Amino acid sequence: MEIFDWEGRRIAWERAGSGPAVVFCHGTPWSSWLWRPFAEALSGDFTVYLWDMPGYGRSSKEPDHPVDFGVQADAFQALLTHWGLEAPHVVAHDYGGAVSLRAHLVHGARYASLLMADVVAIPPSGSPFFRLVKEHPDVLSRVPPYIHEALVRAYIGNASFRELREGDLASLTAPWLGEEGQPAFYRQIAAYDERYLAENEAGLSRIGFPVRVLWGTEDTWIPQATGERLAAGIPGATFSPIADAGHLVQLDAPVALATELRSWLSVSARLPGGVER
Q1: 183: part of which helix (H) or strand (E)?
Q2: How far is CA 200 from CA 72, 91, 97, 197, in A?
Q3: DSSP letter at 174?
Q4: Structural Rg of the chain based on CA atoms
Q5: What pLDDT does 61 receive?
Q6: Strands 238-242 and 9-17: what pairing?
Q7: Distance between CA 105 and CA 63 in Å, rounded?
Q8: Of 55, 86, 105, 82, nearest to 208 (Cα)?
Q9: What backbone torsions phi and psi does residue 68 show, to the nearest 5 degrees?
Q10: Which of 86, 124, 160, 209 sits between 20 and 30 A of 117, alpha carbons compared?
Q11: Three-state SS string across 106-127, please?
């Protein structure tokens, strides 16, 4: 793991492999942990980059640092510059969709291609629990730790169509526990601002690179219809549902997702053996 110091924040990131650059963007309440197995599998043909957004995973979680979409897009653009990447392939999940889109539409970040899986990218978005937290972030951040842990475990578990393995659930929950993690969990939800998503949707027609949208058919956090509308708004974008997968498509349908990733990236990067879909 390496650290990128940016505007008082510590952004954790890592790189592996060789070949065309592929950057993975996570969402909330997740971290780069979700993408790591897929990045490792692709590292034989690609140079893969993982990073934790400020306020998430192994990155710093200072209470006075904003963590909204605008800040995350700024951080992503700064990271791309730090890495010296002019036009990488980008793979995004959940909030990572909004962040990567804003980095392109507002800051001019260039991508060779963009694959988005069950992303928060255009309105509307947010589960009932998400909306409850936004209304009472200060109160919930002070609940006893055992109640907080139960809430986070239930919230994360609800994102999966299949029951999560205990080890996976523990890994996803761990960054949000303790004196630093608990308030950070509610702080990042409170920072949600749907205006950024409306701005993204208004700019979709300006996207000129290849885009593919994947969606779990059983996603109860963001309905498939939203993913279809997202793809329809981007010139030339393609859409594909992933059967028997919820919002946590990485854990619900890892084989189907890995197959889609390799096929898409092989064609986009013009690797030998790439098959058009």
Answers
A1: helix 178-190
A2: 14, 17, 10, 5
A3: G
A4: 17
A5: 96
A6: unpaired
A7: 28
A8: 105
A9: -75, 175
A10: 86
A11: CCCCCCCEEEEEEECCCCCCCC
Q: Which of 69, 48, 50, 36 is nearest to 4 (CA)?
A: 50
Cα end-to-end span (Å), the chain: 35
Under DSSP, the state recorded for 264 is H
How far apart, in whole angstroms, are the C-alpha atoms of residue 91 and residue 20?
13
CA pair distance 67, 193, nearest whole angstrom:
11
CA distance 64 to 66: 6
Closest CA to 190 of 74, 91, 69, 108: 69
- pLDDT score for 275: 39
Q: Give the E-state strand segments of 31-97 in sequence order.
A: 47-51, 89-94
Global pTM reads: 0.94
Q: For residue range 41-60, what is the model confidence (pLDDT) as tens digits?
A: 999 999 999 999 999 999 99
- Among residues 158, 163, 162, 156, the alpha carbon closest in space to that of 181 is found at 156
Identify the pLDDT of residue 80. Answer: 98
Could you tell me if 169 and 41 are in contact, meaning their C-beta atoms sit under 8 angstroms apart?
Answer: no
Q: Name the strand (E) or helix (H) holding 178.
A: helix 178-190
Of 232, 62, 89, the C-alpha closest to 71 is 62
The span from the CA of 65 to the CA of 205, in Å, is 32
Cis ω on the peptide bond leading into residue 29 (within 30° of 0)?
yes
* Closest to 68 (Cα-Cα) out of 183, 177, 193, 220: 193
CA atoms within 13 A on the CB side of 242: 28
DSSP 205: G
